[in-house]
Amino acid sequence: MWVRLRQLGEFEAVTDPLTDYYVHPSSLSANPATMLLALDRIIDTTLVADLRGFDRWAWRRRILATQLCSAGLIARDNGLKSELRYMFRSLCAWPSPLWEPRRFAMFAVSARNTLR
Q: Domain of 45?
């Protein structure tokens, strides 16, 4: 929704919180696999729709890497065993430490958590 709204005009920053939300353990937002499927449906049609060639490929991979890292955090919050796998896939999707370098630290924490 936000990506589509951005196509209609500019956004303005608001410093005050305007809403609260709660993620229930059984909600769609708590399921990393569902979140990634939804991303896969919109990434080409919306997020990189105006890009071509290498730029399209690179941005698609970067977005995927970021979302896989988020999926790992969701898995961690929900006690799912897939946490480390998502973090590893994030690094494989875009292995550069210059893009979201915190992913490497998160991967290390996930590896430590898995070994415990």
A: 29-115
In a domain, 49, yes or no: yes
- In angstroms, what CA-CA distances link 9 with 6, 15, 32, 80, 89? 5, 20, 30, 39, 34
Residue 97 confidence (pLDDT): 92
What local confidence, expressed as pLDDT, does residue 104 receive? 96
Calculate the dihedral angle through the C-alpha atoms of 81, 72, 85, 57, rounding to the nearest 10 degrees. 160
pTM score, whole prediction: 0.78
Cα–Cα distance for residue pair 20/11, rounded to 1 Å: 19
| Token representation of residue 39 | 């991303």
The CA radius of gyration of the chain, in Å to the nearest whole number, is 16
Q: What is the reported pLDDT for 23? A: 64
